[in-house]
Amino acid sequence: MHEHADMLILGGTILTMDDQGTIIHHGGIAVRHGELLYVGTEEEARRRFQAPETLRADSCLLIPGLINAHTHAPMTVYRGLADDLPLDVWLKEYIWPAEGRTVNPHMVYWGTLLAADEMIRAGTTLFVDMYFFEDDIGRAASDAGMRALLGEALVEFPSPNAKTPAEGLAYVRASLERWAGHPLVRPILQPHSTYACSPDLLMRSKALADEFGVPWLIHCCETRQEIEDVRRQTGKPPVALLDSLGILDSHVIFAHGVHLTEEEIALLGERGVSIVHCPESNMKLASGVAPVPRLLQAGVNVAFGTDGAASNNDLSLWGDMRTAAMLHKVASGDPTVLPARQVFWMATRGAAKAFGLDDRLGSLEAGKRADVVMIDLCRPNLIPMYEPYSHLVYALHPSDVRTVIIEGRLVMRDWEILTFDEEEVFCKIGEMAEELGRQWGRDTDWRKAMGQ
Fold this sequence. Notes:
Elements: E1 3-4, E2 7-10, E3 13-15, E4 23-25, E5 27-32, E6 35-41, H1 42-48, E7 49-50, E8 53-56, E9 60-64, E10 66-71, H2 87-102, H3 105-121, E11 124-131, H4 134-144, E12 147-154, H5 165-178, E13 185-187, E14 190-191, H6 199-212, E15 216-220, H7 224-234, H8 238-244, E16 252-256, H9 262-271, E17 274-277, H10 279-284, H11 292-297, E18 302-304, H12 317-332, H13 340-354, E19 372-376, H14 388-395, E20 401-406, E21 409-413, E22 416-417, H15 422-440, H16 446-449
Parallel strand pairs: 1-7, 2-8, 3-9, 10-11, 11-12, 12-13, 12-14, 15-16, 16-17, 17-18
Antiparallel strand pairs: 2-5, 3-4, 5-6, 9-19, 19-20, 20-21, 21-22
């Protein structure tokens, strides 16, 4: 008798990312109720299981879904609006004024769908978002069939979605209750930064995170200016401030962590804090080079994030992986730092670990959730293949991602998005861009640009 499965994926090479680094040739995967029922050989999968749907993965590499551990999904609307500027000028003179005019539930929903389109096509199955109107971002993620960890940006001053910190916290509490038990979407706590939040707001947000047992993420030590500003405001640099408030623990994640002293790195290792490395955004804004090799040596867990499309300017983790692998080699003068396998681990297992999801995501193992990405190896940039990790980090293009499965559901098959209408998304974003372009004196006739 065959066991029932919902889907079989047969053929190809499985890069499991399990603790043993198992690679299975002529692989077979069985999926049932969104779970990986079996991961092994095609022969054994055929012998044991039957399913109403079978995908062939011949000449393909099967990998766990990537996790974008820090982004601002709706900011796809501002892609290319302001470039080649310092962070403070970019934020204060361009992005914040643009957001003040345009951020609303409609904008964040469609901006997130555009982000989901781009991320799915690049093999990302989970994104960790910090923005405003996060319930609408969750709605877009759910409609797209993507996983999302939602983080309403908590700030001390009025935001597009909350006039006071108390309103922001109340919104997050309601969101935590609203999304409870959802298979794809889960709110977490994300105060913006130590310069945009008072110590009281930082502590209250951490208490709420602990009450619901969810992670707590914050922008931290992204620029030298930030550190000096926080020191002037509070008398302490950001890491010391957070430690003095009793916040630092294994449920805390820093986005960026560019400017850290050796003492701070050691403290983060002791406390179990994770770092999200955003190398392309940090480079573009000239924020600096995060000390990733030293963080790893100190036992600090590191994941990857793209940051937002307004400061990267794309949402493909492949670019950040490749950039990081090469950036830290040239920065250290050591070609052996951040080898390809370690970099890919950071984008999968490392990210899952950062958010307490390593028992569910990050590897292809029986019992974990069925987030599977199929890479087409019949591409000129991927032939020949001696070492799969090398290809993933140094040679792969987002367009090599052929099929994406999230929670056992096909969201993209043979390069076709199955969960929403791409053309409708493009039209909605085009309309927003035309209005924004008029406000900024830019030619943003997207139909003309696309030859329509």
